[in-house]
Structure formats: C-alpha cells, structure tokens
Amino acid sequence: MKTILVTGSNGLLGQKLVYNLINRKDVKLIATSIGENRLIKKDGYIYEPLDITSKAEVENIIAKYNPDAVINTAAMTNVDACETKREECWALNVTAVKNFVDAITSNDIGHRTSDIGHHTHFIHLSTDFIFDGEKGSEYVETDEPNPQSYYALSKWEGEKLVQQSNIKWAIARTIIVYGIVDNMSRSNIVLWAKDALTKGQKINVVDDQFRSPTLAEDLAEGCINIADKGATGIYNLSGKETMSVIDLVYTVANFWKLDKSLITPIKSNTLNQAAKRPPRTGFIIDKAKRELNYHPHSFMEGLEILNKQLSATN
C-alpha cells in the first residue's frame, strides 16, 4: 500500500488526481488544500486542510503520514496577480516548495534507521512560462529557462529548490490545463470561451501566442505514472498539439457550433497585461511518452471528453 499526498486538491489538477486515485486499492490517499474540502465525493480518502506556506503545518503533515509520494499541485497561477501580489506569489510558489523539501529531507533522515531506504518522492508541478518563448519551436526538458514575469520567476526558483535538493524528486512541466471541476468553481480558457460565446458575448483573443492545451485528466495520469514508476528528473507533460490561442478558441466555437464572428483577433501588446507572456511555447513530449507511457488525447478528443462530462453534470 502506497501513501500518496496531494496538495491543492480543490484545484483542477488536484481534483482529477483525487478522482483517479480513489479507485485504487493499492493507494492510501491524503488530499490537502487550503480551507474546506470542495470536492463532491468525500469518501475513499483522507482530507486534511493545509496551508503550504506554513513550515510547521507542512512538517506536521509529512511526519504524520510519512507519504511515499507527494504530488504538489498547489500554486499561485494567476500570472497578472503574481506580478502585483509578489509576496503572496513568492510564499506559495517558492517558500512552500522549500517547506516541503526541508520537511521531506528531515523526515527521510528520521525514518532511515527503522525503515531502510524510505524516501518520499516529491513530484512538483511547473510551467512552460519559465521559458521566454523566443526559441521559435517546441521546448525539450533540457532547454534553458529565461523567466519573463514574476510568476515565471517564482516557478523557476521553486524548480531550482527541488533540483538542488537531496530528496527524490521529479518535476512535471505543463501548459494551459483545461477541464471541469466539481461545482464548476474554476474556469479555464476552454470553459471561458464556451461560456462567453454561448451567452453571445464578444471576446478578444490573442493571435500571436502559441500553446499546447493540456487535458487535466491526461496531466493527472502523467503525474500518477511518475509516482508509480518512481521516475525522477524533469518531464514535459502537455497536450500533443501546439496551436495559436485564437485557433484554440475557434476550435472551441466550432466544436459547440457557436458564433465565431463574436471572436476578434488581437495582438498581445494591446492587452496592457501586468505580466509579459512568452509568445510561443509548446513541448516535445517524447521523453514522457518513452519513459512514462504518457499518451495524451488530441484537443478534439479532449473537447469530446469535456462535453460528455458537461452533459452528465447538467
């Protein structure tokens, strides 16, 4: 029986991880998030409220459950908010990571005598935004980061803490994740576009940024494969197609037969966003395919899955 602890279990990826893992007889699941448990299904796992920015709380939970793996999905991911609320961003994306690295380091040492060779496997989520987007093609795991925003900087600093630690670690980098959550409490680009166009609202969408949209279920499966295989190092876990953000939104409109004339293409520099975005990211996922048996759905297949889920909730 393997104990897996998930942080950020109220979030999109966190929820998908919980719903994937509760069906497994070989896993004892500890779900953690700030505040109360917002998942509809409350049985089959243990829920513990956790403030990852509190060193004491992180130490206590690691000592209490001595997990075989921690999947750290909790983060501050609103790119513009990170630019203005820098202390909060740093606390969640850097200090919290240090809390886990330190807690796992001391916990591993504490268990070495009684439990020979016990190492907690720390699986940390990161982002394509650590790159500047100037490469002109998709990124591989070994490309050199060059963060362009405070959010990106905080995620890269968090990564470095993990990479320079002596614990057993893996980093899963991903790109705009979409999917649906319980009670529809979170949105993402796919749901935002569908919702606005369904209501007949006009939307402006950038045509000079390129991304590989990632289905939350695929990302969850990739993270679980890392845990199952005890894989270490850096893995790109994203969707398999890179497209412009406007093409992504056009695809959403076509899929649900919505009015594309409501969509206006614009340039990134007209948005006056607080944080700079990399113009072109996208990942080469060959390493994850080869080592993790990671085979994500196409964007169209992802929309089909989403549509079925939406129909089931209505």
If you had to describe this structure to a student in words, what would you say it looks like?
There is one protein chain. This protein has 314 residues and is an alpha/beta fold. The protein has a single domain (2-180, 213-239, 282-297), classed as NAD(P)-binding Rossmann-like Domain (Rossmann fold, 3-Layer(aba) Sandwich). The protein contains ten helices and 13 strands. The chain has helices spanning 12-21, 55-65, 79-84, 86-112, 150-163, 189-198, 216-229, 245-255, 286-292, 299-313, and strands spanning 2-7, 27-33, 46-49, 69-72, 121-127, 168-174, 177-178, 203-206, 210-211, 214-215, 233-236, 243-244, 263-266. The chain has a seven-stranded parallel sheet with strand order 3-2-1-4-5-6-11, with helices on both faces. Helix 5 (150-163) links the parallel strand 5 and strand 6 (168-174). Helix 2 packs parallel to helix 4 and helix 4 (86-112) runs parallel beside helix 5. The longest helix is centred in the first third of the chain and has 27 residues, at 86-112. The chain starts with a strand and ends with a helix. The relative contact order is 0.14.
Number of helices, counting only DSSP H or I runs of 4 residues or more = 10
- Specify the helix fraction band: 25-40%
N to C succession of SSEs: EHEEHEHHEHEEHEEEHEEHEHH
Rg over CA atoms, rounded to whole Å, is 19 Å
Main-sheet strand order equals: 3-2-1-4-5-6-11
What oligomerization state is this entry in? single chain
